[in-house]
Amino acid sequence: MSQVLDLLVVGGGVTGSALLYLTSRYTDIRHIAMLEKYAAPARVNSLHSNNSQTLHCGDIETNYSLEKALKVQRAARMVENYATVQPDIDHLIFKYPKMVLGVGARECEQLRKRFEMLAPHYPRLRLLEPADIARIEPAVAYSKGTMRAGEIVAIGSEDEYTAVNFEALARSFVRQAQRTRDKDIEVHYNSRVSHINVRDGLFVVETAERTFEARAIVVCAGGHSLKLAHDLGYGHHFSVLPVAGSYYFTPQVLKGKVYTVQNDKLPFAAIHGDPDVMVPGKTRWGPTALVLPVLERYNWETVKDFMRVFRFDRKVWDVLYDLLKVSDIRNYMLKNFLFEIPILRRGLFLKDARKIVPDLRYGDLKFAHHVGGIRPQLIDKDHRKLMMGEAKIDTGIGAIFNMTPSPGATCCLENAEVDMRAVAGFLGAAVDEDRFAQDLLIGDQRHATEDLPSHIISGADAA
Length: 463
Ligand SMILES: Cc1cc2nc3c(=O)[nH]c(=O)nc-3n(C[C@H](O)[C@H](O)[C@H](O)COP(=O)(O)OP(=O)(O)OC[C@H]3O[C@@H](n4cnc5c(N)ncnc54)[C@H](O)[C@@H]3O)c2cc1C
What we know:
Structural class: alpha+beta
CATH class: Alpha Beta
Bound molecules: flavin-adenine dinucleotide
C-alpha cells in the first residue's frame, strides 16, 4: 500500500467529516485520511453547545436574498436526506415549529412581502397571524393573560426538521466513512497540524508525531485554516475577525425556534430563542456577537494563532473603520460587549429577549457558561469588506482551505460536494453521480451544482 495519501483532510468538525464521508462513499479515491487535533470529532464550533443547532433553510432568515435562501435550502435538504435515513436519526435531527416574528407595522409589512416571495419555493411555509402564533407559541402572543399590544405577524412552519446536533452528525459521518469497504480510510485524533508545505509535487503535512504526504489536501480547521493557507503562501489578502456568540437559558417558554427580523445595517442576525436539543426543559437564547482576539472560544492559547492571521494593517483598519462609522453597528458592538459583563448583562439581554416573549422576567435568565463558539468572519482586504457566510480558498494546485462561519454547519454537505468535485477533478478520480444524487439530492430541491462558485463563496450570516 502506498504511504502517500491521495487526500488528506485537516480538521474533524462537521465540514471536514462531511468531506471524509462524501469522498469515501461517492468517489473512487482510495487512500484518504483525516487529522483532528482533539481526541474526538467536532469539539470546536460544531460541538452541540457551541452553535444554534439550526438547520437553516433560508425561509425565516430575513437577511437572505431569494437566491441565497434557495442555495441554503438545497444544502439543508442534503443534511436532512442524510440524517433521516440513519439508524440514530433521533440523535441527529429534530422537528420543532419555527417562525420569524415581526413586531410593529414595518416588520409585519416586510414579512408579508417576504412570504409572497418565498411561498412558491417553500410549500410548508405559512403566514402566521396573531391567532396562529398564539396557538403555536402562546408565550410570544400573550402578555399578562391577554394578546400583547402592537401588531405582530410571523412566517414559519410547524412540521419540518429544524434542528441538528452537528456534533453527532460529524461523528456519524466519520463512522460511516470508516465503514466503507475496499478503501483505506484513516482517522487520526490528537494530531495537530503545525505546518504544510509542498515538496516534489506532494503536500507535506507536519504534526508533532508524524509527517504525512498527500497528493491533495482540504483544510477545514475553522479560523486556523487561514493560518495554514498563509503558510503555503495563499490568502494573504484575508484577515480574520473572530466573533464569539454567547447564550442564556430560561425555563422552557418556547416550543420551537423563534427568530426576529434582522436589522439590515447589522452584519449579524438578531437573537432568537429555541429548545436546546441536549438540554430538555429549557429555552436557549442568543447568540450575542462579541469580537474577541481568539480563534477558539474559551481557549486563550489561540490568541497567538489569532495574532498570526489577523495581520493588522492599514487595509484591516479601513474595514473596521467602515464598520464602526455606522452608528447602528457601533451601538450593536457596544451592546454585545456589555452583554458579557456580569450583573449588567442580564438586564440588557432581557430587553432584547422580551421582543419575543414579553413576560420574560429578570430572574428567568441565566448566562450559559462555556456555551457558544466563534464565527471566523473573513476580512477581504482587497475589496475592503467584512465577508459574511462561508469562504473558500481553492489554490488550484490540489489544496483547498475552508473558513466556515454560520450557516457553515447547515452547508457542510454542500460545501463538501464542491470540494469533492474539485479534488476528484484534480486527482483524475470519478464521482458516482447517480448514487450521490439518489442519496442526497431529491425531488424539487435539486438545483444545478454549476451555480456554485468554485473559488470563493460568500453568503450571509444567520446564527
Ligand atoms: C454562536 C454560533 C452559532 C452558530 N449557529 C449555527 C446554526 O444554527 N446553524 C449553522 O448551520 N451554523 C451555525 N454556526 C456555524 C457552525 O457552527 C460552523 O459553521 C460549523 O460548526 C463549522 O464547522 P467546521 O467543521 O468548519 O469548523 P469546526 O467545527 O470549528 O471544526 C474545525 C476543526 O478543525 C480542528 N483543527 C483546527 N486546527 C487544527 C489543526 N492545526 N490541526 C488539526 N485539526 C485542527 C479543530 O479542532 C476542529 O475540530 C454557528 C456558529 C457559532 C459560533
